[in-house]
């Protein structure tokens, strides 16, 4: 299941955060720190990596070409790479979306696309969470529309191009 | 269940050398982190196998709406992946169908399930062909018109009458690509004639157990095993399929083609002993078959032919190495032997005799006119023979050519 507390991680700046037994109060946080905390909590025993497009011009070009703000990649050995297109205007919603996906990959391991694929259902879950937490995340109207469109597309299978 | 995808776009990925990101409509593609082995993906371009790729992983992008991209790295690759190419997961096959009679008309390319067996496929609108359907299936399966009547996508049920328009590897297929500068009709016949001869003769032996005949083939037999040859437009490529005759459904007509593929690969790898062993375990007429394989390789060398098959998809070029392997396979067991035994049968019309030797081997030996008087006599009688043979030494039944024969005892002691 998706973790509601993750919404907190992605709010900038975070004033209060509870992770496991550690309680941090009145500590301003950026999104990279959020990722570190996420990796600390969920990525144990896994290769969980964060990659920013501002650090790699080729990656920046690739994301510009696709028109994507972020991605979550899982290879056949279970390694996960979250990529944020910070140069292309990634928002807190992007961070939230990618962390959610990473968590789904971590929790469920196996994923499939196409007919009967599990990833479609995961997209619907993430879109639902985005819409439910729209106010806390400060989602723009456009972001809400994107989430709604994702939900509609993947509710009916999402295998077209 | 066999799966695959129709490529929409392939982009170079910055994550590694040669890694590409593929946007495609997949029937189903899964990543299992517990299964460490790389999933092999076969790449088909213009209805030809052009290579294999390894699945690296899935990349889920936040786009409008979110989209999943598959990352592949080259395994054995001869061509880049581009729009319209077909990718098959594992050892599946794909057949292509088209129709104008489909209700409702699909507007988007989409993954579908086909027929009662729920075969996986991709349905796409096509400007030229109306609606096109790719069906992924087991290479040995035949898809019937009845299977294609009902097609389901995730939210739609299509009723249709599809017509078969081509196959990539629906049945076992040998593919020959002519890469010479000037390809004439004569050069095509030059390539296809020895292949056809081998397939027809080997089919009769393997499927019906008939001995090889000399001279012209009967029309009925040719029709029964006649291989189907299809040509690919805009390229000089030929695909040889097993006979499509309905009479041959139960005869496993792909066996001679599989044998030919195996023999050509062994010849190309320089394995003359393996080549001969393969022939001996499948055919009785080893020498005649070797001559046919030699003719195929000679014409392949002349026309700079590249060869591939359903179960061996990376093309090979047949040249001098293959030819010398066949030559050495012809003479690998060639020897002259001397033996003692009993001559017990003679056919003076066809010029052969049979001798059972003391080491419990049975020889069928041909001879020329000059030995006729020496062979003639009472049977059985003890003789000492000298003969030339290519039969493997461990076989109990052999063939050869008689060089000399001498009686060991007087056949008629009264004379």
Write a short abstract of this structure:
The complex is a heterodimer of chains A (161) and B (415). Chain A is built from 7 helices and 6 strands; from the N terminus they run H-E-E-H-E-H-E-E-H-E-H-H-H.
Description:
The complex is a heterodimer of chains A (161) and B (415). In chain A, 48% of the residues lie in helices and 17% in strands. Chain A is α+β, with helices and mostly antiparallel strands and 161 residues long. In chain A, the strands form two sheets. Chain A has a three-stranded mixed beta sheet, with helices on both faces. In chain A, strands 1-2 form a two-stranded antiparallel sheet. Chain B folds into four domains: 3-89, Elongation Factor Tu (Ef-tu), domain 3, CATH 2.40.30; 93-169; 174-329, no CATH class; 335-407, OB fold (Dihydrolipoamide Acetyltransferase, E2P) (Beta Barrel). In chain B, helix 4 (272-282) crosses helix 6. Classes of the chains: A alpha+beta (161), B alpha+beta (415). The interface between A and B is large, with 48 and 50 residues. Strand 6 (111-114) of chain A pairs antiparallel with strand 3 of chain B, so a sheet runs across the interface.
């Amino acid at each position: 299941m998706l973790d509601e507390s993750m919404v907190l991680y992605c709010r900038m700046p975070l004033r209060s955060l509870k992770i496991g037994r550690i309680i941090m109060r009145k500590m301003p946080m950026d999104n990279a720190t959020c990722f570190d905390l996420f990796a600390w909590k969920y990525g144990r025993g896994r290769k969980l990596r964060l990659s920013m497009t501002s650090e790699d011009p080729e990656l920046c070009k690739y994301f510009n070409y696709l028109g994507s703000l972020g991605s979550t990649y899982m290879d056949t050995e279970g390694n996960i790479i979250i990529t944020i297109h910070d140069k292309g205007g990634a928002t807190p919603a992007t961070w939230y979306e990618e962390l959610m996906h990473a968590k789904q990959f971590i929790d469920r391991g196996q994923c499939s696309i196409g007919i009967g694929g599990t990833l479609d259902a995961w997209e619907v879950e993430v879109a639902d969470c985005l819409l439910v937490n729209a106010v806390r995340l400060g989602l723009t109207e456009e972001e809400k529309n994107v989430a709604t469109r994702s939900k509609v597309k993947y509710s009916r299978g999402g295998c077209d191009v | 269940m066999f799966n695959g995808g129709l490529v929409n776009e392939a982009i170079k990925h910055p994550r590694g050398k040669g890694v590409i990101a593929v946007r495609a409509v997949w029937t189903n593609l899964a990543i299992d982190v517990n299964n460490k082995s790389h999933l092999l993906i076969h790449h088909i371009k213009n209805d030809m196998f052009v290579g294999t790729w390894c699945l690296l992983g899935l990349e889920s992008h936040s786009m409008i709406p979110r989209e999943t991209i598959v990352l592949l790295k080259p395994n054995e690759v001869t061509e880049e992946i581009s729009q319209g190419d077909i990718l098959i997961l594992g050892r599946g096959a794909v057949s292509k169908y088209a129709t104008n009679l489909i209700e409702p008309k699909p507007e988007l390319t989409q993954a579908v399930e086909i027929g009662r067996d729920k075969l996986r496929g991709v349905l796409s609108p096509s400007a030229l062909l109306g609606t096109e359907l790719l069906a992924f299936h087991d290479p040995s399966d035949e898809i019937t018109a009845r299977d294609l009547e009902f097609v389901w996508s995730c939210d739609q049920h299509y009723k249709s009458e599809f017509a078969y328009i081509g196959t990539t590897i629906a049945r076992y297929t040998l593919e020959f690509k002519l890469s010479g500068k000037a390809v004439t009709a004569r050069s095509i016949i030059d390539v296809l004639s020895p292949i056809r001869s081998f397939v027809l003769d080997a089919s009769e032996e393997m499927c019906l157990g008939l001995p090889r005949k000399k001279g012209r083939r009967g029309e009925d037999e040719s029709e029964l095993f006649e291989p189907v040859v299809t040509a690919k437009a805009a390229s000089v490529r030929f695909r040889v399929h097993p006979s499509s005759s309905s009479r041959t459904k139960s005869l496993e007509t792909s066996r001679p083609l599989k044998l030919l593929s195996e023999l050509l690969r062994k010849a190309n790898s320089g394995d003359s002993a393996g080549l001969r062993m393969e022939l001996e375990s499948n055919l009785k007429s080893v020498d005649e078959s070797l001559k046919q394989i030699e003719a195929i390789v000679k014409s392949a060398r002349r026309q700079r032919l590249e060869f591939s098959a359903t179960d061996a998809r990376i093309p090979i070029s047949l040249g001098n190495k293959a030819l010398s392997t066949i030559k050495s396979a012809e003479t690998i067991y060639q020897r002259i032997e001397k033996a003692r035994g009993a001559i017990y049968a003679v056919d003076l019309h066809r010029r052969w005799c049979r001798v059972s030797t003391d080491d419990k081997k049975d020889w069928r030996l041909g001879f020329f006119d000059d030995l006729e008087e020496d062979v003639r006599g009472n049977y059985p009688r003890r003789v000492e023979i000298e003969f030339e043979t290519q039969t493997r030494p461990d076989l109990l039944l052999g063939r050869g050519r008689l060089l000399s024969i001498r009686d060991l005892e007087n056949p008629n002691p009264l004379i």
